[in-house]
Amino acid sequence: MADLQEERKKEKARSSTKPPKTEPNARFRLDPKLLTQIHETMVKARVLEERLIRMYKQNDGYFWIGGPGEEAFNVPLGLQVHKGQGRDYDFLHLHYRSSAILLAMGADPLGMIRQQKNTVNDPHSGGRNFANHSSIREWNVVPITSTIETQYSTAIGSGVAHRRHGGKGITIVNGGDAGTAEGDFASCLVWSSRPMQELPIFMIVTNNRWGISTPMETQHGEQLISDRGKPFGIRTRTINGRDVEESWFAIRDAMDYIRSERKPFLMESYVSRMYGHSSASGANLVQGEADPLADFERKLASAGVMSPEEMAQIREKYTLELLEMSKRVREEPLPDGSTIYDHIYYGQKGRYW
Ligand SMILES: Cc1ncc(C[n+]2csc(CCOP(=O)(O)OP(=O)(O)O)c2C)c(N)n1
User: Which 3 state secondary structure label does DSSP give 251?
Assistant: First the structure.
């Protein structure tokens, strides 16, 4: 019980309106070059999401959902993925708040802008799926679905493939706190932990404390969500995913374990939900939600890694770049109605019913 009370007290302080105090001369353990790379990618991800929201509000696209507030966890994750195609590489079964992971892996934001506008040249779905429902075959990024948590079931498949194949490739799956109530999450716990048949799956729960409008406190009898792995003998950890270095080292250690032991790991990462659930709840900045990017910038300045002016320039650069991209995409064509049955399960017109 002490664990729970302590964790909830810490989480309350972290998610509060007041920015945490940055001690003068803050110190980092990571190399300054890596810190600036992480910072630049976090800014790019935030500016991208804010651009997607603006596009939605300007009627360029029908819906928005995304991950502003998850960058301090998702960028360190994306940078540590073993990226490539096939079983020698990591497989990713992601959810709709994962743009920063993909940008950190090197994805082009133009493709995400095209998906927001549903243009025909959207590389993820040809203009047919929601914003932030990526699919990148050459990096084993399995198509993201709107039905929450089903990714934990499909992850079992690539987990089995990784186990049979051997090597260092692992399966990475993420989803939200509320989704853990679905049977798919339990299936993944069961299948990944069968004795002598364990699967190398990195199960991640990004806990933003909400399932649309349902507060987490009203839904979880367990002390910590990560505790759900314990009866299965799965190694678990709960971290502050709003802190770049805590995320970096926790992800590194978990990945080292999964890659070498070929066993599952369940990580719960507290994150922010800075613009609410989606466009369905307005997509407006939520007052009082802790901002991990602003916290990181304060710390970078205090440690003398980057000046506020340098950081402002980076933000300006991406603001202009992504604005230009959105203007360009506005002129691009939408898919033709005659292609509605392309790339579906049957794959042939007229065979759908
Ligand atoms: C199977 C299924 N049930 C319900 C929904 C409706 N739904 C969409 S998002 C959501 C809440 C998800 O909350 P959480 O898992 O905490 O993830 P978050 O969106 O907060 O990151 C729900 C219930 C859905 N899309 N799919």
Answer: helix
Report whether pLDDT(3) > 80: no
Atom of ligand 1 nearest to the CA of 147: 26
Dig out the tokens for 130 from the structure: 């929601």
pLDDT of residue 353 exceeding 50, the answer is: no
Token pair 């299936």: residue: 187
More confident residue, 127 or 19: 127
Please check whether residue 315 is in contact with residue 47, taking contact to mean a CB–CB distance below 8 angstroms.
Answer: yes
State the DSSP string of 1-14: -HHHHHHHHHHHHH
Q: Is the CB of 148 under 6 A from ligand 1?
A: yes
Atom 21 of ligand 1: nearest residue by CA position? 176
Is the distance from CB of 179 to CB of 186 less than 8 angstroms? no
From 129, 148, 174, 218, mutation site for ligand 1 pocket: most ligand atoms within 8 A of C-beta: 148
Tens-digit pLDDT profile for residues 81-124: 999 999 999 999 999 999 999 999 999 999 999 999 999 999 99
What are the sequence ranges of the domains in the chain? 32-332
> What fold is seen in the domain 32-332?
Rossmann fold (3.40.50)
Residue minimizing CA distance to atom 11 of ligand 1: 211
Task: Give yes or no for residue 146 CB within 6 A of ligand 1.
Answer: yes
Contact 151, 93 (CB under 8 A): yes
Asked if residue 205 has its Cβ within 6 Å of ligand 1, the reply is no
The tens digit of pLDDT for each residue in 25-54 reads: 779 999 999 999 999 999 999 999 999 999
The two structure tokens encoding residue 107: 């994805």
pLDDT at 346: 62
Q: Tokens for 324?
A: 């230009």
Residue 206 token pair:
């990004």
